[in-house]
Amino acid sequence: MLRRIALGLVVLVVVAAGAFFALAYRPAIDPLPEGEAPSFDPLMVARGAQLAAVGACTSCHTVSEGQDFAGGLPLPTPFGTIFSTNITPDPEHGIGRWTEAAFIRSMREGVDREGNLLYPAFPYDHFTHTTDEDIRAIYAYLMTRPAIGAPNQENQLGFPFSFRPVLAGWNLLFLRKGTVEPDPQQSAEWNHGRYLAEGLGHCGGCHTPRNAFGAEDGSGHYGGAEIEGWFAYPIDETSPAPTAWTVEAMTNYLTYGYDQEHGTSRGPMAQVTGDFRNAAPEDVRAIAAYVVAQMHGGAAPAAAAAPPAESAAAQVPEASPAGAGVETLTIASPPASPAFQSGDSQTVAPATADNPGALIYAGACATCHESGRPQPYGGLDLHKSTAVHSTNPQNIVNMVLFGIPASDGQAAPIMPGFAGVLDEAQVISLLNYLRETFTDQPAWENAQQIVADTVGGTTQPTIYSADGLRRSPVADIPRTSP
Amino acid sequence: MSTNLTVNGQTHAVEAEPDTPLLYVLRNDLQLNAAKFGCGLGQCGSCTVMVDGRAVFSCVTPIVALEGRDIRTVEGLGTIDNPGPMQQAFIEEQAAQCGFCIPGMMMRAQALLERNPAASDAEIRSFMEPNLCRCGTHMRILRAVKRAGELMQQAGAGRTV
Q1: What ipTM score was computed for the predicted complex, to two decimals?
Q2: Would B161 be classed as within a structural domain?
Q3: Which of A302, A401, A437, B24 keeps 20 to 30 A from A180, CA to CA?
Q4: CATH code, domain with B135
Q5: Chain A residues within 8 A of B108 when measuring between CB atoms
Q6: Which positions in chain A touch B43 (Cβ < 8 Å)?
């Protein structure tokens, strides 16, 4: 009897191992013959460039001011650090000897040419939805970039995560292949936007919270999540934006990196908007249409034209809970305070209280934020700031401390950081003042901890200029509390 | 309202509104005219001074944040007869053309070199990025900062007050 049980166990283990092997095994795909460079239709290459911009390939596969697509960017994850790889056509270190079929498989299944399973830090769980035609165009684009002989770096992962076959389990649980089926109830633009946002654009990679396995939690789709020391806002019905997004405003924001009614992209989003400048305008607009629809319950919003700013100022909404129940697309901005009337850079709003936060705002912030100048030359009226309205104050903390570094050769938003001069208590006092003055939201409960972690270096937000380049922070930053 | 400000080691009771930018107090109340008003928006760097060893834009720093802090300006780096290493280096490299940006440049560079007098060229460039010069003497300024670091290392101590 015992022998039979033992035999049964052995059989079970062998079957399980065999099943796992079958699950984890992917054959190598033969390399392109040595010295053979495939040729591509220039139109396909051009389309590939636009699609690579939607996929934000350079965001991960290029280090700041490094060679395009040469990889080497460390991606900190809860499981260890993963380094992005060289995806230039270099035959030794890049994808120069990958066939189109191997490239398509990598995008669809997360498997490299040799058959190794790739880590889902490479968002193949999104890219898998991309059509053959679009993947081919991206392949054509990448294979016509300059080959860079940069070797790939070893990932720093502990066991079991360092053992790639375990990813077969992850794929079994979380990889949902297949195309994004068009919804006939929705417009062609909405459907195209969904195809791009859920696929190549991988918006959920940052804006959807992840579970214990590092996979996106489907129930929290677009519900907002912490990433790289920033808070990727909810872009569903719980969007904290005080002004309801319109498709026009979102298109503007995604294209230029700022919008007059909403402010500036910074943090990792600055990379996205930086990349989107190279995307096809109709693709960006489609993504905007789809994402804005998510904020309005999933359906395409009625095409309400944004009223001109003058009339909008008269329509102050009642204290509506952040974004919830917004039915129309009326843009409602709060009335301008008297200090807004002047474009003089030296006009400072009168400090009304003995409150240090109010005094700091008046002396440090108001010169730009109440200048009345449009972006990118003036600061955003903080009544319109999503950062100040968000339930999570991380982004406004980062802005106050580190600001926005200048971009190269273009008029783009810029802000000095105040980490060098404001201590933790002063930052908190300023935050409380901003929250109280510019929103109808309750005070942040976790601000103190977030400020302490960010000043102390436990949280290290990556600082980007508005053109999406990673920069050293302009503020002379103390990393330890005074 | 009175605020106690410690500038170049000396404490002053300043009669000014607490949201007054430090730059105005330095120039108008304390007659310390090294720091300059450039843009007034913290974007050009000509107003840069040091607070507790950090480079800050004095035009957007209200004095309410500064009670008890150690504020330093170019006047604290040395005198005409006895210039400090930073000033000496800028003279030796003839780094000023119109000179308007130079006090801010010196204070930002001082903040860097006091922590690391051996800063590399790349570190100097990166750190000096927020400060602008419209005459175009950037190359001389960078050389002066490098030289100041060497002078500080020779002197064995960065700080001269």
Answers
A1: 0.90
A2: no
A3: A302
A4: 1.10.150.120
A5: 476
A6: 414, 416
Half-sphere exposure of A13 (CA within 13 A, CB side): 6
pLDDT above 90 covers a percentage of chain B that reads: 93
pLDDT in tens, A201-219: 999 999 999 999 999 988 8
Pairing mode, strands A156-157 and A80-83? antiparallel
User: Is B23 part of any domain?
Assistant: yes
Q: How many domains does chain B have?
A: 2
Do B68 and B27 belong to one domain?
yes
In this structure, the strands spanning A258-259 and A230-232 are unpaired
Q: Name the closest residue on chain B to residue A479, using Cα atoms.
A: B54
Average pLDDT, chain A: 85
Q: Measured between CB atoms, does A295 come within 8 Å of chain B? A: no
Q: Which residues of B touch A426 (CB under 8 A)?
A: 65
Query: A450-476 burial, b if ≥16 CB within 10 A, otherwise e?
Result: bbebbbeeebebbbbbbbbbbbebbbb
Mean per-residue pLDDT, A431-441: 97
Domain span at residue B108? 85-155
Question: CA B108 to CA B125: how far, in whole Å?
Answer: 11
Residues of B within 8 A of A421 (CB-CB) are 51, 54, 56, 61, 65-66
Cα(B73)–Cα(B107) distance, integer angstroms: 7
Q: Could you tell me the CATH number of the domain that includes residue B69?
A: 3.10.20.30
The answer to whether A328 and A315 have CB atoms below 8 angstroms apart is no
Give the pLDDT band of residue A472 (cuts 50, 70, 90): low
Are B64 and A359 in contact (CB < 8 Å)? yes
DSSP, residue by residue, A410-474: S----B---TTT--HHHHHHHHHHHHHHH-SSPPPSSHHHHHHHHHHTSS-PPPB-TTS-B---S
Q: What is d(CA A236, CA A149) in angstroms, rounded to the nearest whole number?
A: 42
The minimal CB distance from B111 to the residues A346, A356, A476 is found for A476
Same domain, B97 and B48: no
Q: Are residues B64 and B89 in the same domain?
A: no
Domain boundary among B73, B98, B113: B73
**Which of B20, B39, B111 shows the shortest C-beta gap to A363?**
B20
Query: What is the least distance, in Å, from the CA of A365 to any CA of chain B?
Result: 7
Beta-sheet strands, E only, within A230-309: 230-232, 258-259, 263-264
What average pLDDT does the segment A34-49 reach?
Answer: 92
Domain boundary among B23, B49, B73: B73
- Confirm whether B8 is domain-assigned: yes
Instruction: Select the residue from A377, A402, A474, A479 to test the B interface by mutation, using most B Cβ atoms within 10 A.
Output: A474
Position A340 confidence tier, pLDDT thresholds 50, 70, 90: very low
Which chain B residues have a beta carbon less than 8 Å from that of A478?
Answer: 52, 54
Q: Is residue B160 part of a domain?
A: no
Q: Is the Cβ pair B62, A364 closer than 8 Å?
A: yes
Same domain, B101 and B130: yes
H/E element, B7? strand B2-7
If asked whether residues B67 and B113 sit together in one domain, one would say no
- For B62, half-sphere exposure in the C-beta direction (CA atoms, 13 angstrom radius) is 28
Q: Do B66 and A421 touch (CB under 8 A)?
A: yes
What letter does residue A223 receive in the DSSP assignment?
-
Residue B108 and residue B59 in one domain: no
